[in-house]
Amino acid sequence: MPRSAPTGREVTVDLTRTNLLNQKTSDATQLTYYLEKLADDATVVAVKSSVQNFLDRISYTSPQTPQNLDLRREITAEILSWNDGLSDAFVKGLVDTSCTIAETAYTHTSHEHQFIVALYTAYLTYADDIGEHNVEAVGRFVQRFTQGQAQSMVAFDRLTTLLGTLHDYYPRISADAIITNSLDSLTGMYIELVTKGARIHPAADRYPFYLRLKTGIACAYAHLNFTKNWGEATGNFYLQMLPELELVIVGINLSFYKETLAGETDNYMHLRATTEKKSPITVLQELVDENLESIRKIQELATCQPGLAEICHSFLMGYVEFHFSARRYRLEEVVDVARYVPA
């Protein structure tokens, strides 16, 4: 039986119900927004607290390393020579990241070695940044490298050339390790790209660290500390310390603040939190303790070889300073850097 047309009163009642429903939906949406905003704010506060705790416990003092303007001009010219149509803002950011880590973490090395570090960082940071737009270029790098083929981008060809010069500047073991870790890092970047959004099984609890160790390029950045002349003159005891140094490089996750603000959840902290059934903040706090233990071991081991303690102290303080000085990490929002400037 067909339904009769609604009366005016029924229409009014229906409209009232609709308005109430819309109001409830709107209220629920606003409540969800405010709850999420509150959670985000609490996360940011917790991140700030963890970073502050770490800096205080390592007795961090800012080295106040000045910018090397000659180095920055050289790296700018190199990036522009790729002719990749990069924006001025992108070039400026890439130069800043590449030169800042060379200037701060490797201040104990020569200008020539800092130039190598800056070049190396520019190539691999570029690979990481453009990977999602050019997955194939990243994925085929290792195959092209081993088969002696030209890469699909100028920057990747230049990286290949740079890797071929490393034995002139670093001990054989270090040069070999930097090269193999570079290939491994590009494999790691490719894994990240093709598994983006994949659910991590709780039993795969070592997978986050496996991936972080590849993409963090820790082995290479550890070996870049030890130049050929220094290593050949003092021996190879420093190799025993490298596992702890690598753990610190991947563990000092001061990029987590930037990632938190960007709403990123496919990073090491979140992957580890998922497999360990913990909050990302809990994982961050645990990482602080793990890093402190590694730093303690580094300091103990560094006393066993002449000059090693000075190199390690310079690198560790400089590596922290890098995260504060490089604009991409936004850590000036976390703590008052002036607090760590010596009087």
Automatic annotation (TrEMBL):
Pfam families: TRI5 (PF06330). It comes from the Eukaryota. Keywords: Lyase. One of its GO terms (molecular function) is carbon-oxygen lyase activity, acting on phosphates. Belongs to the trichodiene synthase family. This is Terpenoid synthase. It comes from Polyporus arcularius HHB13444.
